[in-house]
Amino acid sequence: MLSLFLFSFLCASWHNVFAVTLDTEGLPDTGLDTSNWTAGVLPPLEDIWDLNDMQMAAKNVLSGKYYASYRTGALNEYTYQANLGIYSKVRLNGFGFRDVSNLQTSTTILGYNFSQPFFIAPAADAGHANKSAEASLASAAGKAGILYVPSISSTLSIEKIAKAGLEGQVMFHQEYIWANTSRVIDELDRIKAAGFKAIFLTVDNTGINGIRTRAMRYTASEDTGHAANFDLNSLAAFRNLTTLPIVPKGIKTWQDALTCLHLGFPAIYVSNHGGRVLDGAPTSVEVLMDIRKNAPEVFSGMEVYADGGVRRGTDALILLALGARAVGLGRPPMFANIWGEAGVSRLIELFGQEMATSMQLMGVSDVTQLNTSYVRPKCSSYAGCD
Ligand SMILES: Cc1cc2nc3c(=O)[nH]c(=O)nc-3n(C[C@H](O)[C@H](O)[C@H](O)COP(=O)(O)O)c2cc1C
Prior knowledge:
Layout: H1 2-18, H2 51-61, H3 64-71, H4 78-85, E1 107-109, E2 112-114, E3 118-120, H5 134-144, H6 158-164, E4 173-175, H7 181-193, E5 199-202, H8 213-216, H9 232-239, E6 246-251, H10 254-262, E7 267-270, H11 284-294, H12 297-301, E8 303-307, H13 313-321, E9 326-329, H14 331-336, H15 341-362
Parallel strand pairs: 3-9, 4-5, 5-6, 6-7, 7-8, 8-9
Antiparallel strand pairs: 1-2
Helix pairs in contact: 5-6, 5-15, 10-11, 13-15
The protein binds flavin mononucleotide.
Residues 70, 83, 121-124, 151, 153, 174, 202, 249, 271, 273-274, 276, 307-310, 328-331, 334 line the site of flavin mononucleotide.
C-alpha cells in the first residue's frame, strides 16, 4: 500500500516537473491546455484545433534559437503585432437569404487552378522544424491542391523541392535580388528548368534585413548578400533574365503598387514580410485600403496577393474582400511542419474549414465573388482606414 502511495506520489511529482506552461504571447485564448505536454516533446496533433495552437506546439518543441528564428519580427515588433491585431478591427458583413449549399473555394492564381485562395508563402529554413524540411510543405500543398512558393533561402535545393511535389503540381518560386548577378541568373535558370511557373521577387529587403532582436540574441545577423542599389532600372534589367512571370513581393505603398501596374507586371504581392523588415510599416489591410482609395485601377489591371498575420479563415476573407486574389501564410506552415507533412496537411484542413464556415455564415457561396460589400467600409479605429 505504502509503495503504491509512493509510486503515485512520484508520478505526480514527475508530471509536475515536466508539465508545460507556455507564455502564449497574447494570442487569443481558445482554451488550449498544455498541462499534459512535456517540454521539448512533440505534442499529439489531436490536441491541435487551430493555427495558434500549432505555434504553441512549435514553441514547446523547438529550441529557443529555432523558435526565435521563425517567430521574430524587427525592432519592437509593432508591425508584427499590428499584423495580428488588425483583423479584429475589421467587421465582416454576413448576408442572409442566400443559397450557400454549394460552396466554391477554388480560384486561379496567375491563370493556374488551385483548390483554395490561400497559399504557403516563402519562408527560409524549413529544416529547422523538421528534417523533411520543404519537402513536406511541397507534398502537403500538392495533395491539397494549394500553391506553395518555396524560399530561395530554403534548406533543400530548388531541384529537391521540385521533386518533392506531386506529378503536375504547380509551384512558384521566390527569388532575392542578390548583389551577385551571376548567382541570380543561375538560380532563375534552375528555377525554370525545375518546372516552377512564376517568380515572386522579394523587393522589401534590398541590401539589408530588419534588425531582429529576438533572433539576434541567439545568432548574429549576417550580410544578406542582397543588392542595395536595386532601383527601377535594375528591375527592368531583371525582367530580361527570365521568361517566367515576375511578381514583386513586399509592396507596402499604393505608389509602388501603381508603379508595378504601369510597368506591366501581371501581379503584385502586398506584404511587410511578416513584420521582419521595416518596423512601423502598415499592415496589408491598410495598404489594400490605400490602393482602393488612391489607385483602384490596380485591382482591375493586375492580380494582388497579400499576407501578414493571417491566422484564421476570417483574416483571409477580409484580405480577399479588400481586393486580394490570394492570401499567403508565412509562419503557420513552418510551425505546422514540426509534425512534417501530417501537420501541414492538418493546417490546410483546419484553415480551409474556417474559411468555408465563415463564407457560409457571410452568405458567400463563391470565394471569387468576395468584394468590399462584405467588410465595413468605414471605421475609425486604425490608421489609414476611412
Ligand atoms: C521564418 C521566416 C522566413 C521567411 N523567409 C522569407 C524569404 O526567404 N523570402 C521572402 O520573400 N519572405 C520570407 N518571409 C516572409 C514571408 O514570405 C511572409 O511574407 C510573412 O511571413 C507573412 O507573415 P506571417 O508570418 O504573419 O504569415 C519569411 C518569414 C518567416 C516567418
